[in-house]
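One chain is below:
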Amino acid sequence: MSEYSVTGTLPIGFEIDGKRYKEFSIRPSVLRDSVEAIEELGGEVSGVRLRYAVMTRRLSFTGLEQEHVTSDLLMGLLDRDGFALELASDAVEKKLDELSSS
């Protein structure tokens, strides 16, 4: 599914152990992402929180081990970084829309 992934750069990014991370890739969501996100959240399944919990499973950051990409990490991002992730997620959905209409 990598052909449907989108890469991008966060405007600000975040720092872990003195290194700033900005470059990311986001892939389409699979059912496992949603199930794992619901299990992670337990009874705390609001629409927005669930969206970002699923997004953590779809995201990777250049040079950062996947285990560091958590819901807590995303919740700590600045709004403008969140907006960049939303735009990239929408771009993935557009690619899938094109596939389903062909």
In short: Helices lie at 31-41, 47-58, 71-75, 79-101. The chain has one domain: 2-101. The chain is about 50% helix and 20% strand.
